[in-house]
Amino acid sequence: MDESRVGGRLVHTVLSGFLKLALASLLAGSLLSVFGITPRSVMDFLGVTAEELHNGVVLAFAWAAPRVLMGAVIILPIWLVAYILMPPRG
Known about the structure:
The chain has helices spanning about 5-35, 40-45, 50-85. It is mainly α. The chain has two domains: about 1-35; about 50-90.
């Protein structure tokens, strides 16, 4: 199998996975709305405001981003060398 077909299959797999995830989320959201559950009611139940939720997401991203980048500095070169040294497929 040539590289373009392998890459195309990977793209198809990833896109179909995202589509399935989006459909499942849409169905779950629709089911929740049938029972009257809204994002506002969930936040009220948890005692969280939209601003607090936003601040929490920003803080989580600020914590995770440098760690992801530092990990990538180590992992990506190792992956690249391993990929280059792999025997050809087929």
